[in-house]
Specification:
The structure holds two protein chains of two kinds. Chain A is of the alpha/beta class. In chain A, about 40% of the residues lie in helices and about 15% in strands. Chain A contains four helices and four strands. In chain A, helix 1 crosses helix 4. The longest helix of chain A is centred in the middle third of the chain and has 19 residues. The radius of gyration of chain A is 14 Å and the shape is globular. The N and C termini of chain B lie far apart (about 55 Å).
């Protein structure tokens, strides 16, 4: 973590959260610049390998954001990802990566304001946790 | 008792091979050290006398069925190995009509190795929750009467109870020894991908470098791929040449799966593992 700025990777679903981020941008809302956004087709596309690779390469936090339950473009992708990350964060915590460093959020295409709030609170939380200690 | 078990296994094996119901019986025979058991592949009824069963029969033979596709095969299974059969059936890796399970009511196996036969039961057997195989065609021994004891996760709770720094340090020390021989994968009945993520070059998930990040990556994802699937035979831990307590990771996830979904892997071939399905009403403390 350089200059005490955390590095956060955000996997945003194409149909809701990415559009939500776009909404935040077009509405000229300011949010912390330390998130690197990666667009994925669905939150269900996010393989635990992606998360592990981010942490291996030095990310301080990983955000996965998708459509609200019931709104998934592929009907059920976000339900699968919910189960997956509920278990993954327990495993991460067990080996020494705080569970708070992995966050799953639902942000719809209309929720630019919510996107801003999610990024701000996650960024604050990761800053408070400080740099990673496990590697 | 073990001689009696061996006799029953031999008779069944002979009968199956003579009738031509199977082409091979996978069981145990005495190894070249004259003491400890090793896997045996019996193709001829005349060789059935080589089969033994004793407290050094530690190997999980269910995995060999993956190499016997299309050939009817009989396999000797302890309770934990039979759970592996259920896992493989549920994941459509083996066909029910292609194997015959000779189940053994397992009294537990001891720590053993080349020329070395221990006295104490292996840890997995000390905490064994079922001695009778959940799946068999022919049972050797009397099914246990008493209800299965609750699994104990004391060792997992001990790590959980540590401060974050303690856990980090503990696992860093363990993973540091990993030489990535992938023995844990080769022996695991749940690891049967033809292309393992560890060997993919594009994308290269785990680099070829032998350094802490790669070691951590391998062990983390190995454990996660077995989440809700690990049947607790602890073969990974037994074969690990550098004694990494891999079952701690497996059992941590087993505990979480039991807590969140009330699911135990390998108890029936029909049950879908929790990550292969979902419920709209899931309350997991995340993304509600």
């Amino acid at each position: 973590m350089s200059n005490n700025q955390p590095r956060i990777v955000g996997f945003l679903c194409n149909w809701c959260s990415y559009a939500g981020a776009d909404m935040a941008g077009t509405s000229r809302m300011a949010y912390p610049p330390n998130i690197r956004i990666i667009r994925v087709p669905c939150s269900g596309r996010v393989d635990p390998l992606f998360i592990a690779k981010c942490f291996q390469r030095g990310a301080d936090g990983v955000l996965v954001a998708g459509c609200h339950p019931g709104d998934c473009h592929y009907v059920e992708g976000n339900y699968y990802s919910r189960r997956r990350f509920a278990l993954l964060r327990e495993l991460l915590d067990f080996i020494g990566i705080e569970r708070e460093r992995l966050r799953l959020e639902w942000v719809s295409a209309a929720e630019g304001k919510r996107f801003k709030e999610v990024i701000s609170s996650f960024s604050d939380e990761v800053t408070k946790l400080g740099p990673r200690k496990d590697l | 008792m073990s001689e009696d078990f061996a006799q029953q296994i031999r008779e069944k094996a002979r009968e199956l091979l003579e009738k031509g119901e199977v082409t091979c019986v996978i069981g145990y025979e005495t190894g070249t050290d004259g003491r400890t058991a090793r896997p045996a592949f019996i193709y001829d009824a005349a060789d059935a006398d080589r089969l033994v069963f004793d407290n050094t029969c530690t190997h999980n033979l269910a995995k060999y069925l993956l190499n016997k596709k299309g050939q009817p095969t009989a396999v000797v299974v302890k309770a934990c190995d039979a759970r592996a059969l259920n896992l493989l059936l549920g994941e459509k890796q083996i066909k029910r009509e292609e194997f015959f399970a000779i189940g053994v009511v397992c009294p537990g196996v001891v720590e053993s190795g080349w020329m070395r036969q221990g006295e104490t039961l292996q840890l997995r057997c000390q905490g064994c929750t079922e001695h009778t195989p959940p799946l068999y065609d022919f049972l050797v021994g009397e099914p246990a009467e008493e209800p299965a004891p609750e699994p104990s996760y004391e060792d997992v709770a001990e790590i959980e109870g540590m401060e974050l720094e303690g856990r980090t340090e503990f696992w860093a020390k363990q993973f540091e020894r990993c030489i990535r021989c992938y023995g844990c994968r080769q022996v695991c009945p749940g690891c049967f991908c033809i292309d393992c993520f560890a060997e993919l070059l594009d994308p290269e998930w785990v680099g070829i470098r032998i350094a802490p990040p790669e070691k951590q990556m391998w062990n983390l994802i190995r454990a996660f791929h077995l989440t809700g699937r690990c049947i607790g035979c602890r073969e990974c831990e037994r074969v690990c040449p550098v004694n990494i307590p891999l079952s701690l990771l497996n059992r941590k996830m087993e505990k979480e799966v039991l807590r969140l979904f009330g699911f135990k892997a390998g108890m029936s071939p029909e049950a879908l593992m929790p990550l292969a399905t979902y419920s709209k009403e899931d309350k997991l403390g995340i993304g509600e």
